[in-house]
Amino acid sequence: MEDGAQEGDWVVRAAVYGAAIMLVIICGFPLLWMLLTSIKPDREILSLVPTFWTDSPHLHAYERLFTKTKFLTYFRNSIFVAGCTTILTITVGSLAAYGLTRFRFRGKEFIAAILLLTYMFAPIMIVVPFYIMMRTAGLSNSLFGLILAYTAFSLPFCLWLLRSFFQSIPIDLEEQAMVDGATRPQAVLFVVMPLALPGIIAVSIFTFIVAWNDYLFARVLIGLDDLKTLPLGLQDLYESSTLDWGMIMAAGVMITIPSLLFFLFVQRYLIAGWGAGGVKG
Amino acid sequence: MAPAILLIAGLVLYPVLYSMWLSLHAKHAYLPIQRFIGFENFKFFLLEDEEFWRALKLGSIFTFGSLTLQIVIGIGAALVLNETFVGRGFVRAVTLFPYMLPTIVVVILMRWIFNDSYGIAKYLIQSSGLTQTPIVWFSSGMVMITLIMVSTWTFFPFVVIGTLSRLQTIDPELYAAAKVDGAGIFRRFYHITLPQLRSVIFVVVLLRFMFMFTKFDLVWLFAGAGGVGYFVRTLPIYTYLKTFGEMQVGAGAALSTMMFVMLGVFAFAYFTFFRREEHL
After folding, report:
1. Treating both helix axes as pointing N-terminal to C-terminal, what angle do B194-213 and B143-167 enclose, rounded to 10 degrees?
2. Which of A17, A174, A179, A227 qualifies as a FRET site for B66, CA 20 to 30 Å off?
3. How many domains are contained in chain B?
4. Are A115 and A239 found together in one domain?
């Protein structure tokens, strides 16, 4: 909306700036507070009059986190599980999405409908049977079981997203490549996949975040301390320690960093992608 | 192609059907006890169990409270973020980020901010002079309100993303024309913006309802099983406690199944109502 000489326009401008500042404070301050707490000395943390800055910032809390707890083990497990889940989901999802958009077969629409239906299956609703199944299969207390669980959970949505991306790639392009002597796998790998890359990136990030953030499946499937992922590890740390708030906040900062990196990377596409991709409306 | 369908069938559809099958049994979580009992589990919850109805009530309060705030604040924020102002990119990024934050981080951070002794919230409220008696955020009377506030904080960006992406596709010509006709900001909002947002709000409300109604991790980590957690024991929490606390897998599966049915009924009613309204 361009500024005209509209009556009351400056009131609107002032309101917009006021609201924007509010948003930054409400959404940003807690994060800043977490960071600040993690680098404050204990006497400033446990003070009835909080300080909004600290003169003696230090990284002792991080040192305690890395040396006195198994945080790094949890971190490694989380990276491993989220990474494997992403690779598995992308591989299976791309193949399936390609098949769904390129081949004719019976029940195609039915499969698409089922994909959307799975939206209604929240983790808490499938965790009960999942637990029994995984135990029967001997996959409880195994990171592989966890990877399977996350793949199952994110695959329907990813497939749905990828499908709309593959649909937007003209079929002529790969037919052209095949006329020129490429096999179908070659055509897919060198013609279709590069064009679908933005969609694949979006889906990778979604999948990674699902696996990175999950608590429920990990809680139910993992019991061994050495196999815990970050959310489990941090919860147990929080509940077992005589609260070392500096260290807990340091752990929070560490877990947030990968999410933040991903977020900065996709932020620009997030809003545009919403309209183009998964959630139609 | 086939592997994906098999994976989905095996890992998503099968568990749901298996869950319905389990709900007809009395089954222990790890002892080999499994007995077919028909609809006894359902009968128990619906007719005899007061805890079930209490969980449904608390879950509804949580869902509708949080959903309402998310929608109102989310749409408001999206309208602001759609305006042109200095630093818009930064404000957008900061506003959307809480949605990406892992739940466990949201929980420990908010437990620190709302801490009874050293929490910054307590300090800010007292020094602003709003009230001298400190608010105990994690007391039986307050915990639901605290939880609703925290869940709104972390989930309203979802509404912002959806609304903002739609706002950006509205033709600026419409506003220009309305301005020429002398329509003020409120009339422009009511007659141009709102009708255009209808469909996206419809979808966002439905999705957020389903997500909030079945929300487990935030509620569980925030308040725990016992103590103050009792006052936010929603259906997902109750399901977890039945299954993994009391080891009654059949009962847990019955609760899952009922949640599924409730979501289905809600979605159906919602669609029906919405369609009818659309014709008016």
Report:
1. 140
2. A17
3. 1
4. yes
ipTM value? 0.87
A135, A159, A251 member nearest B4 (Cβ): A159
CATH number, domain of B57, equals 1.10.3720.10
* Burial class of residue A13, CB neighbours in 10 A (0-12, 13-18, 19+): middle
Q: Tens digits of per-residue pLDDT, A68-117?
A: 899 999 999 999 999 999 999 999 888 888 888 887 777 777 776 677 67
CB contact under 8 A, B236 and A8: no
Tokens 């996949």 -> residue: A193
Residue in A16, A120, A255 closest to B210 by CB = A120
A52 shares its domain with A163: no
**Segments forming the whole domain that contains residue A96:** 62-276
Interface of B with A in 33-62 (CB under 8 A): none
Report the CATH number that the domain containing residue A197 is assigned in CATH: 1.10.3720.10
Residue B71 covered by a domain: yes
C-alpha torsion B159→B165→B170→B175, nearest 10? 60
B 82-141 → A contacts, CB under 8 A: 83-85, 87-88, 90-98, 100-105, 108-113, 117-118, 120, 123
Which of A274, A164, A1 is closest to B166 using CA atoms?
A274
Question: How far apart are alpha carbons A215 and B216 in whole angstroms?
Answer: 9
Band of the pLDDT at A5, cuts 50, 70, 90? very low
C-beta atoms of B108 and A248 within 8 A: yes
Residues A82 and A215 in one domain: yes
Q: Is residue A27 part of a domain?
A: yes
CB B249 within 8 A of CB B177: no
- Give residue A4's pLDDT band: very low, low, confident or very high (50, 70, 90): very low
